[in-house]
Amino acid sequence: MDDSARSGAQALAPLLAAFDAAAEEGHFTRAAQRLGVPQSSLSRRVTTMEQLLGVALFQPVGRGVALTPQGRDLHARTRGLVRALDDAVRQVRADADPDSGLVRFGFPLTLGPVSIPSLLAQFHTRAPRIRLHLVQAHGEALAEQVREGGLDLAVMIPPPPDLPTVDLGRQRIDLHVSRTHPLARRARIDLAELAEEAFIANPPSYQLRTLLDSWCAAAGFTPRVVFEITEFETLRALVALGQGVALLPAAEVANPDLAVIPIDGERDREVGLVSGDHDSTLAVARLREFLIARRAAISG
Question: What is the CA radius of gyration of the chain?
């Protein structure tokens, strides 16, 4: 490598983190918040990188930004380098001080108001110098972030078969109807009895929707889904208003306008604590052991 190439690489190195964050966030403000720098600083770093390379890396899209074809090519080639460097720095810092460091932790949309925040508050009391970066998302989004190294740990329901997992228990799925629904007073119900009902459900990419479709098919019918929605509290609110029925895990904060009815047969799914296949820091191991010891509080 000649001197000019070497100096170019040295100039680009400190700019890659800004480029990587902006590429993943699709928004300069969020990317700056993620890196803990002013937006003006992040914008200057991206501009400097574009000037050094002689190409535009981003283009405006609405209120955010998107990668240009050249930007997509560069991100595909450098994202692994940025993550590897980040992992190496975190590992060295964590090994030097096991009571500090950063843990990137994800959990599903069906857990959150009570169980996970309560456990994380307990953990913070015991390890106040360990910082937690939290992500709440649906299962496949969490799995992808664990695989790519964006998350160190994630509670997933169910866990994917290709990632290291510790079993935390089972989550039961019940029928949810409004208090005024004719089925509201039933002690149990057979799924086949719901063939004529209108359903409110997640989109097909969600595992709960996969269960709904497969369980109904086994019962001899295709569910008539009248609302598709990703947000669970809004889903429960629509059920409470009598707009349809839903198969859901029990809410952590009970809704007095909903009746919850057990369904005949085994109607549950596995809860697991998933780890990535990259090196784990001592801070990550500490949170992992803490959650495993309190698995009953997660799966109920």
Answer: 23
- pLDDT of the chain along its 300 residues, tens only? 444 444 445 556 668 889 988 999 999 999 998 888 899 999 999 999 899 889 999 999 998 999 999 999 999 888 877 777 777 666 666 555 667 788 999 999 888 778 899 999 999 999 999 999 999 988 888 999 999 888 999 999 999 999 999 999 999 999 999 999 999 999 999 999 999 999 999 999 899 999 999 999 999 999 999 999 999 999 999 999 999 999 999 888 889 999 999 999 989 999 999 998 766 788 899 999 999 999 988 876
Question: First vs last Cα of the chain: how many Å apart?
Answer: 59
The whole-angstrom separation of Cα 152 and Cα 274 is 8
Question: In CATH terms, are 98-168+270-299 and 172-268 the same topology?
Answer: yes
Q: Could you please state the CATH topology (level 3) that the domain comprising 172-268 is classified under.
A: D-Maltodextrin-Binding Protein; domain 2 (3.40.190)
- Residue spans per domain, the chain: 3-91, 98-168+270-299, 172-268
At 137, list the tokens: 């998302």
pTM (2 decimals)?
0.66
The two counts, helices (H) then strands (E), for the chain are 11, 11
